[in-house]
Structure formats: C-alpha cells, structure tokens
Write a structure and sequence with these properties.
The protein is α/β, with parallel strands linked by helices. Helix content is about 55%, strand content about 15%.
C-alpha cells in the first residue's frame, strides 16, 4: 500500500523536482555541444572543458539525489563525500551519436511547460531523424493531436492548469486518440506516479534528465509497437473489405444461379411431359423404349436436382414452409425404396428394407422426407459396385426420447473421416484417393441435411474407406412447428 507523504516530504520532493529541471538542462545542452564539437574542427581543449561541465552537472545531480532528501535534512541519513569524476573519453566516444538509416522515424509531439526542456528534447529527437512538434500545455497538445496525426507523445507530468495525468486521461478516453502511444516524462521521486500513468494507459516513461541512449531505445520500442499495430489494423481492414466483397460475389452468384435454375425448370418440365406423351402413344420397339426410359430417368434426375437447389435456396433464406401431415414410417421407407428399385436392378444391387408397421405415425412434411430418403438411397446405389447391397431401415430410438432412427447402409467404397462434415456442404465433393476418382455428392446431401434439421432432427454418417457407409438421421415423433 502506498502511503501519502507528509507536507515536509512533499516540500522536499518539489524542491528536488525544481532543481532537476535546470540541472537536466545544463547536462542536456552540454551533451549536444559535445556531440557537435566532436563532429567539428574545434580545438580539443573546448571538448575537454565541455566534458568537465557535464561531469560537474552530473555530480550536482548526484548531490541532489543523495543529500537533498527528507531523511538527510533531518540528519537521519549518513552522507559521504561526492567527488567530481574524470570524464572517460573511451566511454564517451563509444556512445552512439548518429542515427542509423535502419532506425524507425516517427512524428512525435513533445509536451512540456518549460521551454528549455522542450527545446532539448526537440533538438535531440530531430538529430535522431524524427519529425517533431512542441506544445507548452496539455490543452495545446490536445488541440494539436486533434488537428494532425502523431505516432508518439512525450508528455510531462508536472504542468500548470492541466497536468500530465489529466492530459493522458483525455487522450485515452478519446476514440480517435486512444491508439496514440504516450511516454510520460518526469523528474518526480514517487514510484506511484509512474505506476499511475502506466495504469492509465501510458506506454512507458522517461526520467529527467534524459539519457540519450535510453531516450533512443524507449522511443524506438514504442514506434516499433506502433508500426506493428498499424500493420495489424491495416490487415484487419483489408480482411473486412475482402470479406464484404466475397459476400457480395456470393450473393450475386446465388442470385444468378437461382434465376438460371428457376428458368430451366419450365422447359425441362415441358420436355418430360412430351416424352411421357410419346411413351403413352406406344408402337415403340424395344430399343426405342429403352432409350426413352433412359431419357425420362435422366430428365427426372435433373428435375430433382433443380428442385433440390431451389428448395435449398429457400431454406437458406428461411422462406421454405414445411407442409405438415400424418406420415407412416413404414410407408415412408417403402415408397422411397420403390422409387429407386429400378436403378438397383439395373446395377445388380440387392436393395432391402426393414421397417415395422407397428411404428406410430408422426407429423411431418412427407414429401420432403421422401426426397431425403430417395437422395440417401440414390447416393448409396451410385457408389456401391455391382453385386453389392443397400439396406434401408427405420426403428425407434432406444433412448426413450420419442425419436425415430432412419438408416441407409451400403457396401460401397466408404468415406474418409475428414470428409464427414464436408459432404453435407452445398456442392461438396470428396476425393477418394484410393479409388482414384472423385465422388460428387451434388446437392442431395445438402437438401437432406436441411430438411432433417427443419424437422428438428439430426443427420450424420459413419464410414470407413473400403468398409461401406451408413447414413443415419433422427426425427422426433412430435416435430417443432407441427400443428
């Protein structure tokens, strides 16, 4: 827990703050003069004198730090003599003075009510390659931030009228400014002042007087984080734009598909009606009847796909209404098997059914469920080799939840587990690598899934490659929405 200071301690802290400012200015200006002198042809004597001035400034700062304390003034602290250090030219020469091309530069706002402090920081930052603007108060800083974008703000804490705390608070509550990184600059003693600023959203802090190396490092770190956030924001915006564009294209594709498919149904229905009329006329030889039968089968298959696609579109838009009626489970299985019996005979596949006429009738859309079963049985027949088997069954659930379980079991190629979900997607395809062929599921499984779920049921598949497949779906005896 942080204890509040006594008036005497506050007075000492304020005095230390006031002394640090001019001492920091002496050190700051001297360091910049030393850097300029090293880069010029001035005599070495001037450089040596400047280094002595800087050393004296640092010694004076050390005296303030160590001796100008509340305990020291009361006589509780033990003081030791402070000696002026001799400048180590090897160390000073090794300090980096020139910004490298690889360093990141930014647009930085420096906020300090003391003009000399502001000037030192601005000149130091400009030598490092940054674009800078100065502000003498918190209110001026807020106005500049509102008028122009900045990458970073160096904000002094101790300022009249609006201090750094209030300025930081207003920056962080403004949606347009909260992303701007703020580094607090302070000569205060209390650690809690730094903690308070970090908790309010400050990115970092810098103590006065400024160390050029520390200044460069912390500003560079903040700018790198800012650049990374900007890249993430830009990528997110691009992703949103791409997603919106993709959705627009999908909508356009679906609308175009719906229009084309809807327009196809009318001429296809006319073709089927014409072929059925020819069939009824008679006087066709065996080959002609076979060809006509194949054409009718293909036409009905195509019409079924068109109807599936149109119904899927309606289900996706929530505009398809189920037409409920009383449905017999036994009759549903029997009539569905009858529709594809000819296909099974033509492929030499044994098609069997298992149901119980004692199962209770239930309320459902019989046409949608019959199309569901026909889709599943037709899909099983399609991928079952000649001589194979397909079995269709319905039985009550053993869970006692009032469910019926329908199953279509085949001895076909099987489906890999990673494709179980994909096969129910619209236009989904599963690549059977072992067989070297693609198994197109078309729209039948998509329609089946949506029809079953519209009745409050669930559909899934169990399969192993080479072991055949079983498609299951459950239906409640009392479907949601049934009258």
């Amino acid at each position: 827990m942080i204890q509040s200071n006594t008036p005497e301690q506050e007075s000492v802290a304020l005095l230390r703050h006031d002394l640090r400012n001019p001492i920091g200015q002496i050190i700051g200006y001297t360091e910049m003069l030393i850097e300029d002198t090293r880069a010029s042809s001035d005599p070495a004597g001037l450089l040596a004198d400047l280094e002595k001035v800087r050393a004296a400034g640092k010694t004076l700062l050390t005296i303030v730090e160590e001796r100008l304390t509340h305990d020291a003034l009361r006589g509780d602290a033990v003081t030791t003599p402070v000696t002026i250090p001799t400048p180590d030219r090897r160390t000073e020469t090794a300090r980096p003075n020139v910004i490298t091309e690889s360093d990141q530069h930014g647009h930085i706002l420096v906020v300090d009510d003391v003009e000399a402090n502001r000037d030192i920081l601005l000149r130091r930052l400009e030598k490092q390659g940054h674009q800078t603007v100065g502000a003498a108060s918190g209110s001026e800083a807020l106005s500049l931030l509102a008028a122009s974008p900045f990458d970073l703000v160096l904000l002094d804490i101790m300022m009249p009228e609006m201090d750094g705390y209030e300025t930081l608070r207003r920056i962080k509550v403004d949606p347009d400014l909260r992303h701007v990184a703020v580094v607090m600059i302070t000569a205060l003693d209390e650690v809690d002042s730094v903690v308070r600023c970090i908790e309010m959203g400050a990115a970092d802090y810098l103590p006065k007087p400024f160390d050029p190396v520390l200044l460069r490092a912390r500003i560079g770190s903040c700018l790198r984080e800012k650049r990374a956030r900007d890249r993430e924001t830009g990528l997110f915006v691009e992703l949103q734009d791409s997603y919106r564009h993709l959705k627009d294209l999908e909508t356009m594709r679906d609308d175009l598909t719906h229009m084309i498919v809807h327009d196809l149904r009318t001429p296809l229905t006319s073709i089927l009606a014409g072929m059925q009329t020819v069939e009824a006329v008679g006087d066709l030889n065996e080959i002609q009847q076979e060809m006509l039968g194949l054409s009718l089968d293909g036409g009905h298959t195509l019409l079924g796909m068109i109807n599936d696609l149109l119904d899927i579109d309606k289900m996706e838009k929530g505009s398809l209404q189920l037409e409920y009626g009383t449905v017999s489970p036994d009759e549903l299985v029997h009539s569905s098997v009858a529709q594809v019996a000819l296909l099974a005979r033509n492929k030499n596949i044994t098609l069997t059914e298992h149901s119980d006429n004692r199962l209770p009738p239930f309320s459902a859309d019989g046409d949608k469920l019959r199309r569901t079963l026909v889709n599943l049985i037709g899909n099983a027949l399609k991928f079952t080799p000649s001589g194979g088997t397909v079995d269709v069954s319905v039985q009550p659930s053993g869970s006692g939840m009032g469910l019926l379980i329908f199953a279509v079991r085949d001895s076909g190629e099987g489906i890999p587990k990673e494709a179980f979900d994909r096969i129910f997607e619209k236009f989904g395809q599963v690549e059977n690598r072992k067989a070297g062929r693609k198994m197109s599921t078309g729209l039948g499984l998509t329609f089946s899934k949506m029809a079953v779920e519209a009745h409050g049921g669930r559909i899934w598949v169990e399969s192993e490659p080479g072991q055949g497949s079983v498609f299951f779906f459950t239906l409640p005896l009392t479907a949601p929405g049934a009258p």
